[in-house]
Specification:
The chain is mostly helical. The protein is built from eight helices and no strands. It has helices at 2-35, 41-58, 60-77, 80-96, 100-114, 120-136, 140-156, 160-177. The longest helix has 34 residues, at 2-35.
């Protein structure tokens, strides 16, 4: 019992320390963002990207807000690549919030942005997220078709890490479908 109490106290202390560290990082980045020259779009985007990554861990509403700011800045500057990344980021936040329709909408917009400046790796990541949406919404055949095409792509570029993750998704699909 004493060990359980000690472990519980340790976990609470670590959680508190992590929360303070995260809060400190976001405060510093927010301050840097407020001080940066308004015409330094690259600098603003870099800070916003870092904020998004931090917020994505445990503050999805803030992550979404940052992704929207990235999107608006990309629209202002005409940065199609950044606009697509922001759309994908919004789609990912919505997916993690369980808002599958909104997620699918933004992932499809991100795919449209990739038509201007193609990037097969980004497209594959977005397609995997779309397949995950189809899997969780019980559209198993559609999800499996996408997963199969992605597996062929990852094999062709010899990306064994992505192959492994994709096989995990396929296993999850079979498990969820009851096969």
């Amino acid at each position: 019992m004493r060990h359980l109490l000690t472990i519980s106290i340790l976990l609470i202390a670590l959680n508190h320390t992590f929360a303070q560290e995260t809060h400190s990082k976001t405060d510093s980045l927010q301050k840097a963002l407020s001080l940066i020259d308004k015409n330094d779009y690259a600098g603003q985007l870099k800070i916003l990207h870092q904020l998004y990554d931090i917020y994505l861990i445990n503050d999805l509403p803030s992550a979404l807000s940052v992704a929207k700011r990235q999107y608006l800045l990309a629209e202002k500057t005409g940065e199609v690549t950044v606009k697509g990344e922001a759309e994908a980021s919004m789609g990912f936040v919505y997916y993690n919030q369980g808002k599958n329709d909104s997620s699918l909408f933004f992932f499809n917009k991100a795919l449209e942005s990739l038509k201007v400046q193609p990037d097969e790796k980004k497209e594959a990541d977005i397609m995997n997220n779309i397949a995950n949406i189809f899997r969780v919404t019980a559209q198993y055949d559609t999800a499996m078709t996408i997963y199969t095409n992605l597996l062929k792509y990852y094999e062709s570029v010899n990306d064994i890490v992505k192959q492994g993750k994709l096989l995990g998704n396929i296993g999850s699909l079979y498990y969820t479908a009851g096969n």
